[in-house]
Design brief:
This protein has about 300 residues and is an alpha/beta fold. Helices cover about 30% and strands about 20% of the residues. It has one domain (about 5-295): Ribonuclease Z/Hydroxyacylglutathione hydrolase-like (Metallo-beta-lactamase, Chain A). The protein is built from 10 helices and 12 strands. A 7-stranded mixed β-sheet has the order 1-2-3-4-5-6-7. Strands 8-9-10-11-12 form a 5-stranded mixed β-sheet. Helix 1 (about 5-15) packs antiparallel against helix 10 and helix 8 packs antiparallel against helix 10. It starts with a helix and ends with a helix.
Length: about 300
């Protein structure tokens, strides 16, 4: 996301103000994950786990979000980070006092190595089943990018270990484990298989909807022109509209920097704010318009 667009998004989200100090985190969770990571934003840079809300935790790295949800019948994990981050994810789960073998399902936002590259490793370690959105299953089963992915040429250098897909959910489909239901939303902006996930989280008598909205950046391999692929542009815009319509009290993003997530988990910005997903989609729409204009002028 362009810096000017990110600033506009953060202002719209109300994230540039101050926020009350966070409540004491659950045992094992960091009180200040932003300070723990410091300037590190690498996709495999170790981060401590952090409490999100209710029974949801951040167990990813300094540069990649991975979410753990505790249910009455086991654990759900969303994303894995890259393959080399899988041991760190498992360590964070243990640090929170959970047995990784209690992970029953792994969900995926999109089929790129930086977010799904560790799924096969985590499946071997936990025995978890994998659920995907409507269009990601083929790439996750093969470990290879879809040919129509704007980043396909670049991704050929980062093939993933094939994962076992246990369930494919259509747009609006849901997965229920115990007392928790997670809903899939097709949001094919960043990749053909991009999927966002929502669920209800309750804490201290207050229930909020958490939206793990997938990446909305429209980036590509060198030489790819979105103007030559109107069907991809239409899909990207449709994905943005879907994110805009999500129930979205708390916004999570696959790259925490896209929504100042580490700062919000550390109490430096409000975690929940109105119209977060609307502003997130608006910033992405502006970036796509600028990309198309630049392609037209040859810049």
């Amino acid at each position: 996301m362009a810096q000017s667009s990110k600033i506009a998004v953060l202002a719209a989200l109300g994230l540039l103000g101050t926020a009350p100090a966070p409540a004491a985190p659950p045992t094992g969770a960091s009180r200040n994950i932003r300070a723990a990571c410091g300037a590190r934003e690498g996709w495999s840079d170790p981060a401590p786990p952090a409490h999100i809300h209710g029974r949801s935790w951040y167990v990813g790295t300094c540069g990649i979000t991975v979410v753990l949800i505790k249910t009455s019948a086991g654990l759900i994990l969303i994303d894995s980070g890259p393959a080399e981050a899988a041991p760190q994810v498992l360590a964070n789960v243990r640090a929170l006092g959970f047995d990784p073998r209690r992970i029953r399902w792994i969900l995926s936002t999109h089929e790129h190595f930086d977010h799904a590259g560790g799924i096969a490793t985590l499946q071997r370690a936990t025995g978890a089943k994998l659920a995907t959105g409507p269009h990601a299953a083929g790439a996750l089963r093969s470990g290879r990018p879809y040919p129509d992915d704007p980043q396909a040429e670049r991704l050929q250098a980062y093939l993933m270990a094939p994962a076992r897909v246990g369930r494919v959910l259509g747009d609006g489909g849901s997965l229920t484990l115990g007392d928790t239901t997670v809903t899939a939303h097709a949001t094919p902006t960043h990749s053909p298989g991009s999927t966002s996930w929502t669920w209800t989280s309750c804490e201290s008598g207050q229930c909020l909807t958490i939206a793990y909205a997938d990446s909305l950046s429209t980036i590509s391999s060198d030489g790819y022109r979105f103007r030559d692929h109107p069907e991809r542009v239409a899909a990207a815009r449709a994905g943005m509209r879907s994110v805009e319509r999500l129930d979205c009290d708390i916004l999570l993003t696959p790259h925490p920097s896209s929504s100042d997530l580490l700062e919000r988990l550390s109490g430096q910005r409000p975690l929940a704010a109105p119209r977060q997903c609307v502003a997130y989609a608006a910033g992405a729409s502006k970036d796509l318009a600028e990309r198309l204009a630049a392609e037209q002028t040859g810049k």
